[in-house]
Amino acid sequence: MKAKIKKIRFLSIIIFLAALIFLLIFILTKNKNNTSHTKNENSEKLILGFSQIGSESAWRTRNTQSIFEAAAENDIQIIFDDAQQKQENQLKAIRSFIVYQVDVIAFVPIVEDGWDNVLTEAKEAGIPVILVDRQINADPSLYAGFLGEDGLEEGRRAARFLLNKCRNRTGTVSIYEMSGTENSSVVRDRAKGFREVISADPKFQIIHSEDGDFLRSRGKEIAENLITSSRRKDGLYFEGQKIDAVYSHNDSMTLGMLDSIENYNVYTGNTIIISVDAEQKSIDALQAGKLNCVVECNPNLGPKLMELVKDIAEGKTIPRVTYNSETMFTENDDFSTYEPRGY
Ligand code: AHR
Fold first, then answer.
1. How remote is the CA of residue 52 from the centroid of ligand 1, in Å?
2. I need a labelling partner for 46 at 20 to 30 A (CA). Which of 34, 157, 284, 295 fits?
3. pLDDT, tens digit, for every residue of 40-90?
4. Which ligand 1 atom sits closest to the C-alpha of 297?
Protein backbone atom coordinates (compact mmCIF):
# COMPACT_ATOMS: atom_id res chain seq x y z
CA MET A 1 0.00 0.00 0.00
CA LYS A 2 2.83 2.38 1.02
CA ALA A 3 4.60 1.66 -2.26
CA LYS A 4 1.42 2.48 -4.21
CA ILE A 5 1.08 5.87 -2.42
CA LYS A 6 4.75 6.61 -3.17
CA LYS A 7 4.17 5.84 -6.86
CA ILE A 8 1.12 8.15 -7.05
CA ARG A 9 3.09 10.98 -5.34
CA PHE A 10 5.99 10.47 -7.78
CA LEU A 11 3.63 10.61 -10.78
CA SER A 12 1.95 13.79 -9.42
CA ILE A 13 5.33 15.48 -9.08
CA ILE A 14 6.25 14.50 -12.67
CA ILE A 15 2.92 15.86 -13.98
CA PHE A 16 3.35 19.06 -11.93
CA LEU A 17 6.88 19.58 -13.27
CA ALA A 18 5.79 18.95 -16.87
CA ALA A 19 2.96 21.50 -16.47
CA LEU A 20 5.43 23.99 -14.99
CA ILE A 21 7.86 23.56 -17.89
CA PHE A 22 5.00 23.93 -20.39
CA LEU A 23 3.83 27.12 -18.63
CA LEU A 24 7.35 28.55 -18.63
CA ILE A 25 7.80 27.84 -22.36
CA PHE A 26 4.43 29.46 -23.08
CA ILE A 27 5.29 32.62 -21.10
CA LEU A 28 8.73 32.92 -22.72
CA THR A 29 7.36 32.52 -26.25
CA LYS A 30 4.63 35.06 -25.59
CA ASN A 31 7.14 37.60 -24.28
CA LYS A 32 9.40 37.05 -27.29
CA ASN A 33 6.50 37.76 -29.69
CA ASN A 34 5.58 40.86 -27.74
CA THR A 35 9.14 42.17 -27.97
CA SER A 36 9.36 41.76 -31.75
CA HIS A 37 5.94 43.39 -32.17
CA THR A 38 7.08 46.47 -30.25
CA LYS A 39 10.33 46.56 -32.27
CA ASN A 40 8.41 46.49 -35.56
CA GLU A 41 6.29 49.38 -34.42
CA ASN A 42 9.36 51.40 -33.46
CA SER A 43 11.31 50.69 -36.67
CA GLU A 44 8.54 51.47 -39.17
CA LYS A 45 10.03 52.16 -42.61
CA LEU A 46 9.49 55.42 -44.45
CA ILE A 47 7.01 54.89 -47.28
CA LEU A 48 7.56 56.64 -50.61
CA GLY A 49 4.80 56.66 -53.23
CA PHE A 50 6.53 56.89 -56.62
CA SER A 51 4.76 57.41 -59.94
CA GLN A 52 6.95 56.75 -62.98
CA ILE A 53 5.74 57.69 -66.48
CA GLY A 54 6.58 54.37 -68.15
CA SER A 55 9.49 52.63 -69.80
CA GLU A 56 9.78 54.37 -73.16
CA SER A 57 13.61 54.27 -73.25
CA ALA A 58 16.65 52.54 -71.74
CA TRP A 59 17.19 55.86 -69.96
CA ARG A 60 13.81 55.57 -68.27
CA THR A 61 14.39 51.93 -67.27
CA ARG A 62 17.69 52.90 -65.65
CA ASN A 63 16.00 55.83 -63.90
CA THR A 64 13.44 53.46 -62.30
CA GLN A 65 16.15 50.93 -61.34
CA SER A 66 18.25 53.65 -59.73
CA ILE A 67 15.31 54.71 -57.55
CA PHE A 68 14.53 51.11 -56.49
CA GLU A 69 18.20 50.36 -55.72
CA ALA A 70 18.62 53.48 -53.60
CA ALA A 71 15.34 52.85 -51.75
CA ALA A 72 16.54 49.34 -50.81
CA GLU A 73 19.92 50.72 -49.67
CA ASN A 74 18.18 53.29 -47.48
CA ASP A 75 15.54 50.90 -46.13
CA ILE A 76 12.74 52.98 -47.65
CA GLN A 77 9.63 51.19 -48.85
CA ILE A 78 8.37 52.14 -52.31
CA ILE A 79 4.80 51.96 -53.50
CA PHE A 80 5.32 52.09 -57.24
CA ASP A 81 3.06 52.91 -60.15
CA ASP A 82 3.90 52.80 -63.86
CA ALA A 83 1.64 55.31 -65.64
CA GLN A 84 2.09 53.77 -69.10
CA GLN A 85 2.66 57.26 -70.58
CA LYS A 86 -0.71 58.62 -69.41
CA GLN A 87 -1.18 61.64 -67.16
CA GLU A 88 -4.59 60.33 -66.02
CA ASN A 89 -2.85 57.23 -64.63
CA GLN A 90 -0.41 59.43 -62.73
CA LEU A 91 -3.28 61.43 -61.23
CA LYS A 92 -4.94 58.18 -60.09
CA ALA A 93 -1.66 56.88 -58.64
CA ILE A 94 -1.01 60.08 -56.67
CA ARG A 95 -4.57 59.98 -55.29
CA SER A 96 -4.05 56.37 -54.20
CA PHE A 97 -0.79 57.37 -52.44
CA ILE A 98 -2.77 60.05 -50.57
CA VAL A 99 -5.40 57.50 -49.48
CA TYR A 100 -2.63 55.16 -48.35
CA GLN A 101 -1.08 58.06 -46.39
CA VAL A 102 2.47 57.51 -47.61
CA ASP A 103 5.15 59.66 -45.96
CA VAL A 104 6.37 61.31 -49.19
CA ILE A 105 5.18 61.33 -52.82
CA ALA A 106 7.63 61.55 -55.73
CA PHE A 107 6.58 61.60 -59.36
CA VAL A 108 7.89 62.25 -62.88
CA PRO A 109 5.36 64.64 -64.41
CA ILE A 110 4.84 63.50 -67.99
CA VAL A 111 3.60 66.99 -69.00
CA GLU A 112 3.83 70.41 -67.37
CA ASP A 113 0.17 71.32 -66.85
CA GLY A 114 -2.79 69.86 -64.98
CA TRP A 115 -1.35 69.05 -61.55
CA ASP A 116 -2.83 71.80 -59.34
CA ASN A 117 -5.86 69.89 -58.01
CA VAL A 118 -4.09 66.67 -57.11
CA LEU A 119 -1.20 68.53 -55.51
CA THR A 120 -3.62 70.63 -53.48
CA GLU A 121 -5.15 67.35 -52.24
CA ALA A 122 -1.68 66.08 -51.25
CA LYS A 123 -0.95 69.36 -49.47
CA GLU A 124 -4.23 69.21 -47.56
CA ALA A 125 -3.38 65.64 -46.53
CA GLY A 126 -0.02 66.91 -45.26
CA ILE A 127 2.02 64.75 -47.67
CA PRO A 128 5.08 66.46 -49.18
CA VAL A 129 5.74 66.02 -52.90
CA ILE A 130 9.03 65.90 -54.82
CA LEU A 131 9.13 66.35 -58.61
CA VAL A 132 11.58 64.00 -60.30
CA ASP A 133 13.20 64.49 -63.74
CA ARG A 134 10.57 66.91 -65.12
CA GLN A 135 9.09 70.17 -63.90
CA ILE A 136 5.54 71.54 -63.84
CA ASN A 137 3.54 74.76 -64.24
CA ALA A 138 1.97 75.11 -60.81
CA ASP A 139 2.10 77.18 -57.66
CA PRO A 140 5.52 76.33 -56.14
CA SER A 141 3.93 76.03 -52.67
CA LEU A 142 2.26 72.81 -53.90
CA TYR A 143 5.52 70.83 -53.93
CA ALA A 144 8.66 70.66 -51.82
CA GLY A 145 11.24 70.72 -54.62
CA PHE A 146 12.52 69.39 -57.92
CA LEU A 147 15.29 66.86 -58.55
CA GLY A 148 16.53 66.15 -62.06
CA GLU A 149 18.43 67.40 -65.07
CA ASP A 150 19.13 70.91 -66.29
CA GLY A 151 17.36 70.67 -69.64
CA LEU A 152 18.25 74.23 -70.61
CA GLU A 153 21.94 73.49 -70.17
CA GLU A 154 21.59 70.22 -72.12
CA GLY A 155 20.14 72.18 -75.05
CA ARG A 156 22.90 74.78 -74.77
CA ARG A 157 25.59 72.10 -74.74
CA ALA A 158 24.19 70.52 -77.90
CA ALA A 159 24.16 73.93 -79.62
CA ARG A 160 27.65 74.92 -78.46
CA PHE A 161 29.02 71.74 -80.02
CA LEU A 162 27.27 72.58 -83.29
CA LEU A 163 28.51 76.19 -83.28
CA ASN A 164 32.06 75.06 -82.73
CA LYS A 165 31.85 72.28 -85.32
CA CYS A 166 30.57 74.75 -87.95
CA ARG A 167 32.76 77.71 -86.97
CA ASN A 168 34.58 77.79 -90.32
CA ARG A 169 31.55 77.10 -92.41
CA THR A 170 29.94 79.75 -94.58
CA GLY A 171 26.33 79.61 -95.71
CA THR A 172 23.27 78.29 -93.92
CA VAL A 173 23.45 75.33 -91.56
CA SER A 174 20.04 73.66 -91.89
CA ILE A 175 18.98 71.91 -88.70
CA TYR A 176 16.29 69.25 -88.38
CA GLU A 177 15.01 68.82 -84.81
CA MET A 178 13.43 65.64 -83.43
CA SER A 179 11.81 66.52 -80.14
CA GLY A 180 10.33 64.39 -77.36
CA THR A 181 6.95 64.27 -75.62
CA GLU A 182 4.91 67.38 -76.41
CA ASN A 183 4.19 69.72 -73.47
CA SER A 184 6.88 68.18 -71.29
CA SER A 185 9.24 70.52 -69.45
CA VAL A 186 12.32 68.67 -70.68
CA VAL A 187 11.39 69.25 -74.33
CA ARG A 188 10.65 72.90 -73.69
CA ASP A 189 14.00 73.37 -71.96
CA ARG A 190 16.11 71.41 -74.46
CA ALA A 191 14.51 73.37 -77.31
CA LYS A 192 14.92 76.72 -75.53
CA GLY A 193 18.57 76.22 -74.51
CA PHE A 194 19.48 75.10 -78.03
CA ARG A 195 17.77 78.08 -79.68
CA GLU A 196 19.28 80.51 -77.19
CA VAL A 197 22.82 79.52 -78.27
CA ILE A 198 22.30 79.16 -82.03
CA SER A 199 20.57 82.54 -82.17
CA ALA A 200 24.05 84.07 -81.83
CA ASP A 201 24.63 83.34 -85.52
CA PRO A 202 21.87 83.64 -88.15
CA LYS A 203 23.52 81.01 -90.37
CA PHE A 204 21.98 78.38 -88.06
CA GLN A 205 18.41 77.74 -89.15
CA ILE A 206 15.98 75.17 -87.74
CA ILE A 207 14.13 74.12 -90.89
CA HIS A 208 11.73 71.74 -89.17
CA SER A 209 10.86 70.37 -85.74
CA GLU A 210 9.10 66.99 -85.49
CA ASP A 211 7.61 65.37 -82.39
CA GLY A 212 9.13 61.91 -81.96
CA ASP A 213 7.67 61.30 -78.47
CA PHE A 214 11.06 60.06 -77.18
CA LEU A 215 10.42 56.71 -78.96
CA ARG A 216 12.77 54.64 -81.08
CA SER A 217 9.87 53.59 -83.33
CA ARG A 218 9.08 57.26 -84.03
CA GLY A 219 12.72 58.12 -84.78
CA LYS A 220 12.80 55.26 -87.26
CA GLU A 221 9.52 56.34 -88.84
CA ILE A 222 10.56 60.00 -89.10
CA ALA A 223 13.83 59.10 -90.87
CA GLU A 224 12.04 56.61 -93.12
CA ASN A 225 9.59 59.33 -94.21
CA LEU A 226 12.44 61.75 -94.94
CA ILE A 227 14.30 59.10 -96.97
CA THR A 228 11.35 57.76 -98.95
CA SER A 229 9.96 61.21 -99.77
CA SER A 230 13.32 62.58 -100.97
CA ARG A 231 14.31 59.33 -102.74
CA ARG A 232 17.95 60.27 -102.24
CA LYS A 233 20.81 58.26 -100.77
CA ASP A 234 23.40 61.02 -100.47
CA GLY A 235 22.02 62.47 -97.27
CA LEU A 236 18.84 63.39 -95.44
CA TYR A 237 16.51 65.95 -97.01
CA PHE A 238 13.43 67.78 -95.78
CA GLU A 239 11.13 69.10 -98.52
CA GLY A 240 14.01 69.28 -100.96
CA GLN A 241 16.39 70.98 -98.55
CA LYS A 242 19.54 69.19 -97.45
CA ILE A 243 19.72 68.59 -93.71
CA ASP A 244 23.15 69.62 -92.39
CA ALA A 245 22.51 68.78 -88.76
CA VAL A 246 20.05 66.71 -86.75
CA TYR A 247 19.34 67.70 -83.15
CA SER A 248 17.56 64.78 -81.50
CA HIS A 249 16.16 65.22 -77.98
CA ASN A 250 16.94 61.63 -76.95
CA ASP A 251 18.93 58.52 -77.83
CA SER A 252 15.94 56.28 -78.47
CA MET A 253 14.79 58.50 -81.36
CA THR A 254 18.38 58.88 -82.60
CA LEU A 255 18.92 55.12 -82.62
CA GLY A 256 15.63 54.69 -84.48
CA MET A 257 16.79 57.24 -87.06
CA LEU A 258 20.08 55.31 -87.46
CA ASP A 259 18.05 52.11 -88.01
CA SER A 260 16.36 53.67 -91.05
CA ILE A 261 19.57 55.26 -92.32
CA GLU A 262 21.16 51.80 -92.27
CA ASN A 263 18.10 50.01 -93.68
CA TYR A 264 17.99 52.37 -96.68
CA ASN A 265 21.76 52.58 -96.98
CA VAL A 266 21.81 56.39 -96.90
CA TYR A 267 25.16 58.18 -96.68
CA THR A 268 25.17 60.52 -93.66
CA GLY A 269 28.93 61.02 -93.31
CA ASN A 270 28.40 64.78 -93.81
CA THR A 271 25.36 65.06 -91.56
CA ILE A 272 26.10 66.27 -88.05
CA ILE A 273 24.02 64.21 -85.62
CA ILE A 274 23.64 65.32 -82.00
CA SER A 275 21.74 63.31 -79.42
CA VAL A 276 20.83 63.57 -75.72
CA ASP A 277 20.93 60.92 -72.91
CA ALA A 278 24.18 58.93 -73.42
CA GLU A 279 22.93 55.36 -73.27
CA GLN A 280 25.63 52.78 -74.02
CA LYS A 281 24.20 52.14 -77.51
CA SER A 282 24.53 55.76 -78.52
CA ILE A 283 28.04 55.97 -77.09
CA ASP A 284 28.83 52.90 -79.25
CA ALA A 285 27.36 54.75 -82.25
CA LEU A 286 29.51 57.80 -81.43
CA GLN A 287 32.63 55.64 -81.33
CA ALA A 288 31.61 54.03 -84.63
CA GLY A 289 31.43 57.51 -86.23
CA LYS A 290 27.65 57.43 -86.69
CA LEU A 291 27.01 60.29 -84.25
CA ASN A 292 29.02 63.44 -83.56
CA CYS A 293 27.97 64.43 -80.07
CA VAL A 294 25.96 62.98 -77.20
CA VAL A 295 24.89 65.25 -74.35
CA GLU A 296 24.45 63.33 -71.12
CA CYS A 297 21.17 63.32 -69.23
CA ASN A 298 21.89 61.48 -65.99
CA PRO A 299 19.13 58.99 -65.00
CA ASN A 300 20.76 57.98 -61.70
CA LEU A 301 18.53 60.04 -59.47
CA GLY A 302 17.88 57.39 -56.79
CA PRO A 303 20.57 58.20 -54.19
CA LYS A 304 19.82 61.93 -54.15
CA LEU A 305 16.07 61.30 -54.09
CA MET A 306 16.37 59.13 -50.98
CA GLU A 307 18.45 61.85 -49.27
CA LEU A 308 15.70 64.36 -49.99
CA VAL A 309 12.97 61.96 -48.82
CA LYS A 310 14.79 61.42 -45.52
CA ASP A 311 15.40 65.15 -45.06
CA ILE A 312 11.73 65.92 -45.63
CA ALA A 313 10.69 63.16 -43.22
CA GLU A 314 12.93 64.75 -40.58
CA GLY A 315 11.13 68.04 -41.13
CA LYS A 316 14.02 69.73 -42.97
CA THR A 317 13.43 72.09 -45.90
CA ILE A 318 14.87 70.76 -49.14
CA PRO A 319 16.29 72.96 -51.95
CA ARG A 320 13.73 74.14 -54.50
CA VAL A 321 15.92 72.77 -57.31
CA THR A 322 18.56 70.02 -57.21
CA TYR A 323 20.35 69.29 -60.48
CA ASN A 324 22.18 66.02 -61.06
CA SER A 325 25.74 66.22 -62.41
CA GLU A 326 26.01 65.78 -66.18
CA THR A 327 28.64 65.84 -68.91
CA MET A 328 28.86 65.36 -72.68
CA PHE A 329 30.62 63.05 -75.12
CA THR A 330 31.92 64.12 -78.52
CA GLU A 331 33.76 62.79 -81.53
CA ASN A 332 36.83 64.72 -80.30
CA ASP A 333 37.15 62.68 -77.09
CA ASP A 334 39.77 60.07 -76.27
CA PHE A 335 37.41 57.08 -76.32
CA SER A 336 39.86 54.94 -74.34
CA THR A 337 38.91 56.96 -71.25
CA TYR A 338 35.22 56.03 -71.49
CA GLU A 339 33.73 53.90 -68.69
CA PRO A 340 30.84 51.52 -69.49
CA ARG A 341 27.57 53.40 -69.08
CA GLY A 342 25.67 50.54 -67.45
CA TYR A 343 22.40 51.12 -69.32
O1 AHR B 1 12.78 63.27 -69.18
C2 AHR B 1 13.98 62.69 -69.58
C3 AHR B 1 13.82 62.11 -70.94
O4 AHR B 1 12.78 61.18 -70.94
C5 AHR B 1 15.02 61.35 -71.46
O6 AHR B 1 15.89 62.14 -72.21
C7 AHR B 1 14.35 60.38 -72.36
O8 AHR B 1 15.15 59.36 -72.83
C9 AHR B 1 13.20 59.98 -71.54
O10 AHR B 1 12.23 59.31 -72.18
1. 12
2. 34
3. 344 589 999 999 999 999 999 999 999 999 999 999 999 999 999 999 999
4. 6
Cα 79 from Cα 105, distance rounded (Å): 9
Pocket test for ligand 1, best of 51, 59, 179 (most atoms within 8 A of CB): 59
Rounded CA-CA distance 265/259 in Å is: 10
For 322-339, the pLDDT digits (tens) are 999 999 999 999 999 999
Amino acid, res. 96: S
DSSP category for residue 82: E
Name all residues whose Cβ lies below 6 A of ligand 1.
56-57, 59-60, 133-134, 186, 214, 250, 252, 276-277, 297
In the reported structure, the alpha carbon of residue 206 is separated from the centroid of ligand 1 by a whole-number distance in angstroms of 22
Comparing CA positions, the residue from 133, 131, 129 lying closest to residue 62 is 133
60 alpha carbon to ligand 1 midpoint, in Å? 6
